[in-house]
Structure formats: C-alpha cells, structure tokens
Specification:
CATH class of the largest domain in chain B: Alpha Beta
Number of helices of chain B: 4
Largest sheet of chain B: 6 strands, antiparallel
Strand order of the largest sheet of chain A: 3-5-4
Shape of chain A: globular
Structural class of chain B: alpha+beta
Number of strands of chain A: 5
Radius of gyration of chain B: 28 Å
Strand content of chain A: 5-15%
Number of domains of chain B: 2
Number of domains of chain A: 2
Distance between the termini of chain A: 79 Å
Distance between the termini of chain B: 98 Å
Strand content of chain B: 15-25%
Oligomer: heterodimer
CATH architecture of the largest domain in chain B: 2-Layer Sandwich
CATH topology of the largest domain in chain B: Alpha-Beta Plaits
Radius of gyration of chain A: 22 Å
Shape of chain B: elongated
Largest sheet of chain A: 3 strands, antiparallel
Chain lengths: 201, 166
C-alpha cells in the first residue's frame, strides 16, 4: 500500500520536481543583472539640459551639424527582433566605458547609462520597434527644426507609442530612467515615443 | 470672549492664506507644456533653377489623391513628403509620372541628403525612390529643400552647391 502511492501519481511527482526546480532557478534568474557583465553607471560629463531654442544652439550647436550625428548606436527592439541603428549628439554619449567603445563622444549619458540602466533593470522587453535618433528634418507641418535635427531626441517604440496618443503603454516602464538622466518625455505633449534632452522647445 | 478671539484669529488667518494664494496664482507663470516650438521659421527655398536630387514617395493623378496618400504616411513628429505638381521639376516626367500628375517628394542638393531621407522613409515602411537623374527646379511649391547637412559639417545646407548649379 505504501509503495504504491508514488507509482500511482507519476504526474504529481513530475509537477513537484518542476516546482522545486523553478523555486531554485527563479531567484537566480531574478538576481541576474547587466552589471555582472561589467556595466556601471558612469554619469560622466552630462551637459546641462537647455531650455528653449537659443540655449539648445548655444549648448549643442547648429542643427544638422557633424556633432549632432557624431555617435552611432544600435538598439534591438524586443517585439520584432529588429536592431535599429541611429545616431545622436556627441555630448550625449560615445565616451569609452566597459560596455561602450570610444566613439569620440564626451559623455556616458545615452549609450552607457540610459541603455545600461534599462538592461540592468530588465526593462528591455518594453523597448518596442521603431527607434530613431538624429534626422535633419523639420517638425511636421512647420519649417522649424525638430530636436532630432540637433541629435538630442530619441524616439522609442514609435509604432506603439505613436504621436497623438496621450497615454503610454510601454515607455512608461522606463521613462524614469530617461528622466533621471536629464531627458524630457514627450507624453506631456501627447508624443509618448519621444524623449528629448531639452525643455521649452 | 476667548471663543470670539479664536474665531477672529481663524478668519484673519484664512483671509491671509486666501490672499497669498490668489496673489501667487496671479503672478506665477503659466505652466509651459514643452512642445510648442519657439525656434526660427526657416525660409521655404524652392531652389529655382537648380538641379536637385528628388526622393519620390508616389505619383498620383490628382492633388487630392496625393494629399490623402501623404496624410497616411506618418513620420512621427517629423515632416515627411511634400505634395507638388510634377511639372515644377524639368525632367521629372521623363523619369516618373505623367504631365499633370502630383507627386510626394522631398528635394535635396546632395546625394547624401537624399539617401538619408530615403532610408528614414523606408524605415517607417514608406515607399522612397530616388530619381536616377537630377531634375531642374522651376520654382513653385515648397518641396522640402534645406533639410540636409552641409558637407562641411557646420549645419544645414542652405544654398546652392557645385552639383546643383551645373
């Protein structure tokens, strides 16, 4: 009678083994951080965040300049697996760190710190397709330069967080990281894909 | 007596608070939602007489159809194509469209500018064909000229270059 119990419930034993395995593995998985690969928040040489057009030009130079598109970066979207390549201003990244090669930039802001925090905090699943940076282009239906033309704006998850949508479904999970590193989130003007290193413009 | 004094003091305190709040509300600046741009408007340069590189997003028999197609092509917060009659570029009809058609275009003075915009349009999933030959601008509607980097790295290219005046 005693020996017959487990033999009568093989599915139950398998379930128990699975549960025990998960109980052991889960803390290990949750405890993994990108920092183990050598990443550290450098927080080096951030420029002061400008407000308004004049300060933007004084701090970052003319739109469409060589500096505005100096630093290349790639970022993989989690939903479709496409890796997007874009460029941004040399004052916002490209400084050599354990995770970023020397690209001639002067700070660790975007490619090391913001990107690293998002990876380290396991928020990459909330980076969806449509990731853009520098573009020498006007704001829609105007002849005024977009912050993208200065290389100080990044669009993230652009298909999901489209312009005109006044709520956020994915970028809200990592907005605090951008904001904690000097970026202003465009949700305030119903453009939740948009993060810019400037206010008042 | 004490009760009256307490009521009086409460009234004075309340009135003071209301006055202070009202004053602050009147003098404080309105919260500025970041977004409305305050930068300069750039001139709408038609590049009349110049040989330009044109990126084409589509050609349509009527202006309305072209405008509808353009409205459906989102470029985020950026301006994408411009609707112009194909006749405002000499040599356009030999490469695309028919006389009287309207096209979605963006014009450039450099090949690099055209290639960059074509790549952007493609990444948004929109059609983008660079006309194989430069076309001569006859003036007319604004077609996006000026939105490209000066090859010297100083900023936007806002005037003719050797290739565009040849």
């Amino acid at each position: 009678m005693d020996g017959a119990g487990p033999a009568r419930h093989p599915a139950g034993r398998r379930l128990l083994s699975l549960a025990l395995g998960l109980a052991v593995l889960a803390p290990l998985l949750v405890g993994w951080h990108w920092a183990r690969l050598g990443w550290r928040d450098g927080h080096r040489n951030y420029p002061a965040r400008p407000s308004g057009y004049t300060q933007i030009v004084n701090r970052f130079g003319q739109p469409c300049s060589a500096d505005a598109s100096k630093i290349p970066m790639s970022w993989r979207a989690s939903d479709n697996g496409v890796t997007y390549s874009f460029r941004f201003h040399k004052k916002l990244g490209g400084y050599p760190t354990a995770m970023v090669s020397d690209k001639g930039g002067t700070s660790t802001n975007l490619d090391n710190d913001v990107y690293g925090h998002i990876q380290n905090d396991h928020l990459q699943p909330y980076i969806e397709h449509g990731i853009y940076g520098y573009v020498c282009r006007y704001i829609r239906n105007t002849t005024k330069w977009s912050t993208h033309a200065f290389g100080i704006a990044i669009d993230v998850s652009s298909a999901e967080e489209y312009e005109g949508k006044c709520t956020s479904t994915v970028n809200r999970y990592h907005r605090h990281i951008w904001e904690g590193h000097g970026w202003y989130w465009g949700l305030a003007f119903c453009d939740p894909m948009h993060f810019q290193y400037a206010t008042g413009y | 007596m004490r009760l009256r004094m307490m009521i009086g003091a409460g009234l004075v305190l309340g009135l003071t608070t209301v006055t202070v709040l009202a004053t602050v509300a009147l003098t404080a600046p309105e919260p500025q939602p970041y977004g409305p741009p305050v930068g300069p408007r750039m001139p709408q340069d038609s590049g009349a007489g110049e040989l330009l590189v044109v990126v084409v997003g589509g050609v349509y028999p009527t202006r309305v159809e072209a405008q509808e197609a353009n409205a459906a092509m989102a470029f985020g917060d950026l301006h994408g194509y411009y609707v112009v009659p194909v006749g405002q570029f000499q040599g356009f009809e030999q490469q695309a469209g028919q006389p009287g058609d309207f096209a979605l275009v963006s014009a450039f003075r450099t090949d690099e500018g055209a290639q960059g915009f074509a790549a952007l349009a493609t990444s948004f999933g929109h059609p983008a064909t660079i006309l194989p030959e430069r076309v001569r601008s006859l003036g007319g509607l604004y077609a996006g000229l000026g939105q490209e980097a000066n090859p010297d790295g100083s900023g936007p290219l806002l005037g003719p270059i050797e290739e565009s005046v040849g």
